[in-house]
Amino acid sequence: MKKIEAIIKPFKLDDVKEALTEVGVIGMTVTEVRGFGRQKGHTELYRGSEYTIDFLPKVKIEVVVPDHQVEKIVALIASAARTGSIGDGKVFVLPMGDAIRIRTGETGEAAI
Amino acid sequence: MNLLTAAPHDRKALAELRRLGFADPRAALANLHALTPEPRDAERLAPLLPRLLQALAEAPDPDMALNNLERLAAQGDRVALFRLLGSHPGALHLIARLGGTSQFLADTLRRHPTLFPWLLEGQTMRQWHRDELAAALEQTTSAFERLDARWNALRRFKYRQLLRIGSRDLLGDADLTVTTEELSRLADVCLEATWRWAEERLRERFGVPQGPDGAPTGLAVIGMGKLGGDELNYSSDIDLVFVYGEDGETSGGSEGRRPNGDYFAAVARDIVAALESVTEEGYAFRVDLRLRPEGRMGGIILSLDGYRTYLAERAELWERQALIKARFSAGDVQVANRFFELIRPFVFRPGLDPDIVAAVRGMKRQIDRSLSGKGVERRHVKLGRGGIREVEFLVQALQLLYSGDDPWLRERNSLRAIFRLTERGYLSQSLGRFLGDALVFLRTVEHRLQIVDEFQTHTLPEDPVALSRLARRLGSTLPPAVARRAFEAEYRRVTDGVHQAFADFFAAPPEAREPAFRVPTYTALKATGFVDPDRARQNLRLVLEGRPLVPYVEPMRRAVRAMFPVLLDALWQSPDPDEALNQFERFVAAAGPRTAYLELLADRPDLLTNLVKLCARGELLTQLLLTQPELLNRLADPATFAAPRRRADFRCALAPALASGLTQLERMDGLRRLKQAEELGIIWRLLLGVTDADRFSREMTALAEAALAAGWLMALEQATEALGVPVDAAWRLVPASVIGLGKFGGRELSTGSDLDLFVIYGGAGETDGPERVEAHVFYDRAVEALSSILGDVTAAGVVVPVDLRLRPGSKGSGFASSLPALGQYYREWADPWERQTLTRARLVGGDPRLGRSVRRAIQALVYGPEAPPPDLKEMRELRGRMEKELGKETPGRLHVKFGRGGLVDVEFITQAIQMRHGREHPAIRSPHTVTALRAIGVAGLLPADEAAQLAGSYRFLRRVSADLRLFGARPGDTIELAGPIPARLAKSLEYPSRKDFLDDYRRRTAWVRALYDRLVLAS
Q1: Of A37, A50, B152, B791, whose CB is crowded by the most CB atoms within 10 A?
Q2: CATH 1.20.120.330 region(s) of chain B?
Q3: B87 — contact with chain A (CB < 8 Å)?
């Protein structure tokens, strides 16, 4: 069991959601976040006027999946979120101790 | 005062909101409260509230903008939204514009709130080109395997792009043209993707569709209507036609084979389903297939052949009109190109189609009827009085009338078509500008009407409030009521102007103030030599009054009146008045409303008389003037016919075609146009008697040599680019020379002659390119390129056809020979007649040093000690066959070239003497028949008077042959005694009568034949 965290461009959220639904991942947590990676601290031109990029709006997706699905799902997210330009985001894979479904008390993979 | 914390009925707060322009301050205040449900939200929004209110106040509809903002905020994370609004310099303005203009775009954004940051990226907010759109769509959809997931991704992509395009439109970053073009590109790439998916899926099941010859064939998606014209709207349906290459069967797949028709119908259905089906993400495009042949009743696809048959047999005027806008959108581009080839002659017919005027009037009546029925009159932007349809109708009617003769007018986009019609003078400058502005205005109104709800509405709202909102959406920053009144006034001005232009277009031409010129009566025309007086009267009337629907402007009318008497005179004196008048009318129509040409003719009776002479020579010549009326200016220039032109002059004249920075096609077209212009000048000088027939041929030959030089340079460039430079073992260039034969060698070219030539290169070698090929491969390639550069028919016609059949070597061999191979071929394999052709060989281009070696080799082959004497028996047989198989003279038909006593007789006599005596008399070796004959007389090989008479007859026959070409006689070099040709020849060669000419012709040819019999036959 692993937790996958993906930081992606917001407009790619629907594509990623659709891709995950396609392989049966139904639950996920989505947060609007801000952050920066290598893009930070430069100026950008928007419709002719310059402004300084500080934090960029991003979306964070969190899903917990069984070990055997990890590789496939990471690849899926990467493919659906990719635009090829800077700022496409990152995918992190974290070990997961346990999971408990509150309503039933189920634990482990049965709870995800 | 803090609006965010004010009580719902706080008077000061409500007054403040009213002052800012909110029509319903109460609702606005409620919305502000809803926007900040928690105290912490209000704290976050407070710092940017003044800027927010300002942005909302500037929106076309502030209430709507605020309402939409509140709904967007409820959709996601307020903290993130407020942060973005506060930190990004463009965010407030964008959200207020979008939400305050277009409900449909605001709803789209609310459904996909994560698109907001994307719209705030600099990379997003610019014009995207087709390949970028296609790449982004591919990127997005390729992540999905299942069809329904792809369809969803396609729809999300479409809405995303709509938001981008709409935002740029609303912010004023893109004008109407760019916006509609981008919307059209969006549809194109969606079509391309769905076409690809459909083909992938169906190929797996049924294999590759193949034509009867087993070659794969494809489907083209043709955009029509607004899609074709790059004029798509936010809510437009897309008009499509599907056409496939050939009938046949698929190669077979997991489900066997299918007839191509079934296969492509399935592809088309798949495409339509992929676009139209409504999924949880909505639909992509609504497709309209009613413009296909037979409309709703026809099958949804048709093969090219099916189209051809349909167009030839069934199609109606509205279909021709619709096809003006046809454009390749997606699918197999080769099939699309063949489709356009196929429809071109059908849509754009040369000359004035008499049916069109009636049909166009019929279409106008239909418009009138549909209008009176609906009671929409003014307020309907599209169909109403002075609306878009009237502009488009006017434009397309002019296009149908005139683009047959003028390809420049074949333009799909209505706005560009207006520019082109203005440029050509079919619309006056002021009217053209007005109509262009009017179309942009009306289209923008239509856009702003539709951008609200993505409904296909075309009617202006009656409600004053709604109308003032529309005025603000159109960019007015005035208070609503003022904006509305200004808009109403402008709308009235534009539609009044359009309707006036539309009505004028159909109005009868104003009664002439001065008495009109009388068109001469039937009897008068008959008496002055017109064979078809009815047709002549009709033509004269057209010249006097202009073609229907485009009456002359006043200066034009004056010019026509001024030149009319001279025109009648010139016609009566011309060799063929009927033909002269036909062509002259076409010229006047093609010159169109460009008054300058007619004024020039009115000022210069001499020019007019000569032009009529030129017209009497038939279509071939006037076609040049029709496509390039500006050449008339050149003909009017004394310099054109003063000094004779030489090869160097022609080289300079053709040089611009080789300018750097031009594409291959531009160069080819340029060379054609420049060469034709020069050719017209040469013919002009012959007609005016400035040059005689000999001089004429020499100039035509010099022009051909200049064209050949330019073409050869381009050909070498092409071959070098592909293969590198050919070099020998010592890294020296392997050169090549071009040898002319036949008329080209003899400097006897006339209009329409082919260039007989072959190319000889130095010897063995290899190119230095990445792929080393032998010199003969390189020059084969170069000769092939030369033949296509000079001989291919492009939009601009041809330069001159190249004939390589007299080259050394068998028919299957390469196009170029090496110098050693040349000698070997003629010594060992060539027939005697092939050696005979070498008597007229002449160096015409390429490397001069090698050229001299080639000339020595050829002289040795024909006149050298080892050269056999002429085989007179073989010559007689050959000549006999030519006479029978090519001449085919009958009591009613003479053949100037192959007939008894014709040109070939003179040439054979000359060549026989050259081959027999050329070794001891080098002076007689000239490839130019007349020069050779003179030398033969001087050398005493023929009695001097006989030689002179033979040369005289030869000149006479050449002149007859050249005139026949100018008349466009078919088949070439043939005099049909029954037709009008003998009389025309008599007139142009200045014989008193037809009989005098024919008598002289018969006398001369009989004499030549007698000499031939004596010299060639008897020996």
Answers
A1: B152
A2: 355-506, 872-1017
A3: yes
